[in-house]
Amino acid sequence: MWPNKFDYVRAGSVDEALSSITDDGKFLAGGHSLLPVMKLRLDAPEQLVDIGRIPELQGISANGGLTIGAAATHDAIASSADVQAMCSALASACGQVGDQGVRNFGTLGGNIAHADPASDPPTVLVACGATVNIQGADGARSVGAEDFFVDLFETALDDGELITSVSLPNCSDCQCAYVKFPHPASRYAIVGVAVCLKMDGGTCAQADVAVGGATVKAVKCAGAEAALAGTTLDDAALNAAAEAVKSDIADWLAGDIAYPESYRQQMAGVFLKRAVAAAQG
Amino acid sequence: MQVAITVNGVVHERDVDPRTLLVHFLREELDLTGTKIGCDTSQCGACTVHLDGKVLKSCTLLAVQADGAQVTTIEGLAENGNHHPMQTAFWENHGLQCGYCTPGMIMASAAFTRDNPGASEDEIRHYLEGNICRCTGYHNIVKAVKQVADAAAGA
C-alpha cells in the first residue's frame, strides 16, 4: 500500500522543523504509527517534516529524574539502565510495544502523539506523573501526561506543535509495574494497568494507578489509589481497589465485539491486582 | 528526492518519490525481490531487513528515511558464496514449507542470534512474535534458530 502523495522536508533542528511545518503537515519521527495510518488512508497529510535525525530530540538523560528525547526509540528506552533504575514500569512497557522491529524504530514521541489507547507507554506515563515537553512557534510549554491525553487518538498538542521530550520523576524508591492483558493476535493491550507504589515499611504511603487499553485514553484512577493508600495492600484493600477502578474508568470505557466494555471493565480490576503483585515482586 | 542507500554493500543513488516505502525501493527499484510484502501493516515480518544492523520491517519506513543507511537483505546475507549459518540451519531443519515468510524469518533470526547467543527456546519463540508463518506451526523454525543460537554460544 502506498501512502498519499506528500512533500517531504528533513529538518536538522527543532527550529527548522517548526518553521517548516505547514497547516496540512505532520511531523515524522520513526513513522511506525504515522505510516501505517497513512497507508490505510486514515490520514493524508500533504507534508511530512522528518524530525527523526534532529540531535536535540535524541537520547535519554538522568539528572535527578529522567528526560527522554522525543525521538528515543522504544528499544533504547527498554534497554536503558537509567530507565530500568528510575522507572522500571516504563522500561517494561516500552519493551512490550509491538515487536523488536517496531521497537527498533518507533519512538516515544511518535507513540504519544498518535495516542493509541491500546498502546502501552501512555498508561505508565500517566501513572508515574510524567510531563510532556512541547515546543511551538510561540515558545515552549509543558503538560502533565494526565492532561496530555485528551480522548481517543486526541492529545493536547496544538497544530504545528512538536513534542521535544518527556520528563519523569525518579521512581527508584517506588515499586512500580506495568501489566497487560495482550490481545491474542495483535498483542495490543485489551487492558493495561500501571501502578507506582511508595512504600513505608509494610504500608503503602502513596499509590498511583492508571489504566489503558480498556479505555479511550490512559486514565488516572483516583478511587483505586485511595483504596490502596494507607493499607498493607492486603486482600481487603486489593478487592476494594479492584472495585474502585471500575468506577474510575466508567466514563472512558472502550470495547469491541470480542472484548466488550463490561468485560474490559471487569478485567481492569483483575489486572490491577496483578500489577500490584508484580510491583511488589 | 535524491537518496543514496547502501544495499548489500553497494551504494544505490536514485531519485525517489518521497512516499516510496523502503520495501518498494528494494523490490521495484533494485529488483531485490527476496524481501516479501505480506500484511503490509508491520505485523507479519515478511519484509524484514537489517537497517544499520537493526531488524526493520521495510514496509514501515520511507526510502527517504533510509537515505545514507546500510541495508542488508536476504540476498546479501551469504558471504563469499557460503550460506549464512541461519540459512544453513533453515535448510537442515526444514524450517519452511511455502517459503514466503522465510526471508523475513531468516533476517530476524540472524540478528537475534547475533545479539543473543545461547538464547533459550522460550526466548526464541517470544522474539519471533513479529514474524508470522502460516504453514509450519513454527517448530522447525524454532529448531533452526536454536541450532544457530547454541552454536553461537559454543554449546
Beta-strand content bin of chain A? 25-35%
Main beta sheet of chain A: 5 strands, antiparallel
CATH topology of the largest domain in chain B: Ubiquitin-like (UB roll)
Strand order of the largest sheet of chain B: 2-1-5-3-4
Number of domains of chain A: 3
- CATH homologous superfamily assignment of the largest domain in chain B: Beta-grasp domain
Which fold name fills CATH's third level, the topology of the largest domain in chain A?
Answer: Uridine Diphospho-n-acetylenolpyruvylglucosamine Reductase, domain 3
Biggest sheet architecture of chain B = 5 strands, mixed
Largest interface: A-B, 28 and 29 residues
In short:
Chain A is α+β, with helices and mostly antiparallel strands and 281 residues long. In chain A, 34% of the residues lie in helices and 27% in strands. Chain A starts with 6 loop residues before the first strand and ends with a helix.
Explain how this protein is built.
The complex is a heterodimer of chains A (281) and B (155). With 281 residues, chain A is an alpha+beta fold. Chain A folds into 3 domains: 7-50, Uridine Diphospho-n-acetylenolpyruvylglucosamine Reductase, domain 2 (2-Layer Sandwich), CATH 3.30.43.10; 59-168, Uridine Diphospho-n-acetylenolpyruvylglucosamine Reductase, domain 3, CATH 3.30.465.10; 175-280, 2-Layer Sandwich (Enolase-like, domain 1), CATH 3.30.390. Helices cover 34% and strands 27% of the residues of chain A. Chain A has 12 helices and 14 strands. Chain A has helices at residues 14-20, 34-39, 74-78, 81-86, 88-94, 100-105, 108-114, 121-127, 145-148, 222-228, 235-248, 261-280; strands at 7-10, 25-28, 47-50, 60-63, 65-69, 131-136, 139-144, 149-151, 154-155, 162-168, 175-182, 189-200, 203-212, 219-220. Chain A has a 5-stranded antiparallel sheet. Chain A has a 4-stranded antiparallel sheet with strand order 11-12-13-14, with helices on both faces. A 3-stranded parallel sheet of chain A has the order 1-3-2, with no helix packed on it. In chain A, helix 10 runs antiparallel to helix 11 and helix 11 crosses helix 12 (261-280). Chain A is globular and about 60 Å long. The mean pLDDT of chain A is 97. Chain B is of the alpha+beta class and 155 residues long. Chain B folds into 2 domains: 2-76, Beta-grasp domain (Ubiquitin-like (UB roll)); 85-152, [2Fe-2S]-binding domain (DNA polymerase, domain 1). Helix content of chain B is 33%, strand content 15%. Chain B contains 5 helices and 5 strands. Chain B has helices at residues 22-29, 85-92, 102-115, 121-127, 139-152, and strands at 2-7, 10-15, 48-51, 54-57, 70-72. Chain B has a 5-stranded mixed sheet with strand order 2-1-5-3-4, sandwiched between helices. The model of chain B has no long low-confidence stretch (mean pLDDT 97). The chains are: A alpha+beta (281), B alpha+beta (155). Chain A binds chain B through residues 1-8, 10, 28, 31-32, 35-36, 39-40, 48, 50, 52, 98-102, 104-105, 186-187, and chain B through 1, 17-21, 24, 40-43, 45, 48, 51, 54-57, 60-62, 64-65, 108, 112, 127, 129-131.
